[in-house]
Amino acid sequence: MTRSIVAVMTGFTFIAALSFGTDFAIRAAMPALFEVNGRTDSVAVLLLTIGYVGLYATLGCYLAARMAPQQPMRHALVLGSLGLLFNAAGSYAGWSTAPAWYHVVSLVLVMFWAWLGGRMREQELTIVAARSVAV
Asked: Residues near 59 by Cβ (< 8 Å), separated by ≥ 6?
């Protein structure tokens, strides 16, 4: 049980640290694209954000699945569910910082990123198992 909690929390921390760090770097590098309250309507910035958060979420869920003592997909999806809760709360609190389509798309994709990270680990395990049988 402890290893499962550590796996999920490690993935969560990985995603949060990279996402918040990249958000900060983008705002610092391109302050003209953001209003005083942090709002942006730049489609390019919003799509970039969806892209890097998706990458970090996929890798974080893969990390959780890789660290899992068993059932890697379950660990990735638990992390995805946790991420969905935090993203929903963040979208609610920061609804005015981006257009509605951005919040909706971001929420819809959370579980896909989690599944993708878990699937990557499952495929890795399948390859390892196939190699060990072939030897």
From this structure: 14, 15, 117
